[in-house]
Amino acid sequence: MRGYLMLLAIVFGAIFLTVLGSLSSYILTTNRVQNSEQTQVRALGIAEAGLEYYRWFLAHYPGDLTNGTGAAGPYVIPYNDPEGGETGTISLDIVGNTSCGETTSIEIRSTGTAYGSPSASRTVYTRYAQPSVAQYSYVLNDSVWAGSDRVINGPYHSNGGIRMDGTANSSVTSSRSTWNCTSGYGCSPASSSASGVLGNGPNQELWSWPVPQVDFAGIAADFGSLKTLAQSDGIYYPRYSTTNNPSAAAYWHGYHLIFNANDTVTVRRVTSTTQRTVTPVNSADDDWDRALINNETNYETRNIPAECGLIFVEDHVWIEGTIPSKVTVVAANIVNANIAPNIYLKNNIVYETTDGTDGLTAIAEHNVLITPDSPNTMTLNGIFIAQGGAFGRNYYGGSYDPRGTLTILGTTVSNKRTGTKWCLNSSCSSYGGYANRIDSYDRKLATDPPAFTPIVSTDYEFVEWREE
Questions:
Q1: Whether 145 and 221 share a structural domain
Q2: Distance from the CA of 364 to the CA of which of 23, 60, 169, 221 falls in 20 to 30 A?
Q3: Model confidence over 199-233: pLDDT tens digits?
Q4: Coil, helix or strand for 342?
Q5: Per-residue pLDDT tens for 373-417?
Q6: Cβ(196)–Cβ(175) below 8 Å
Q7: Among 129, 148, 180, where does a domain finish?
């Protein structure tokens, strides 16, 4: 009997010890996991504190990318918890992106390490820059009507009123509390106190007004400095047209830029253009244009400077081709206030690579216009800015209208009302321009556009954030 009881005691004792050991091991393992998770969370908090610290530092010492040391990084600084004292370290890697000798954005990698577990560290990356128009699909300085056939992917903003009957899959914002919506914008009866954004489009929860304006005048204010930079570090072309009279044919000469995938641009001088009667997208223009090239001569092929992809032309510019890097083209005349050049989009504009490495910003002092001989199916990659005029395609009629599909990947910025399709009757069964229009902002360039892309705020912000 005693042996039987002893055997039971041994068996149950063994079972108890096994269960106790397993339970203790589970508790210890769970505790280690919780401690590791807490350490990871603390490390992430320390890394984010490093980003906030350097944002504060740049606010007080603009342009200093060395943490005040004057030496190369990384820069290791202690992290002090207000309640617990020094609890970890921050390691900062800071790189400034430059173009034409000017810093355009700052990349910061902050690694946080909590004391007690040096192997448990977290790294976060951010791009610090002034937010630009590249974050939008459209930025307009005039009231606008987006028809029901439109699909717009990306934020849509106007300093004027907006009639939105299309499908906008992101924010739609107006700087106006109210505006005068007439029949020209689809309002019947007209309303002199229409809401900043109105219409029959879906996703109305994304609409908001009023919001701060985008400063179009500030874009022109940079033309002088951009010309100087192009003359010293980029590419500069003086005015080729030979008269200041817009009614004369010689006023409409200029340069035809054909971008090549081998980091070059082929330049032709436009020696004559053909005048055609049009209905202008910019109502302030005459009822004719000279967007169609008649004759041109080869001028040169240039390497695009790797350190300064800025091309400044004081004349009209025609653009097409494959963009091989980040390039900014400016067509402006700062010598004569009565001359405001146009940019003409003659053919497809695409990027050599689509990973965000390549990009185009095209800034015209007046209009950015698609030419009459544009492709039936046209692709435009870029940020297109009509600083004082309009973006669009004039109505030509005849063999030049209608066209098929226009796809824009990037941003359209227009001082005046835009237009790439012309309804010729009330049902729009007869039309000119492009029947189908696909608009999407370029997410890969939204946080890292070509240099000198106009900004929408003077405040520096974290325009990109991710954990690595």
A1: yes
A2: 169
A3: 999 999 999 999 998 888 888 778 999 999 999 99
A4: coil
A5: 999 999 999 999 999 999 999 999 999 999 999 999 999 999 999
A6: yes
A7: 129
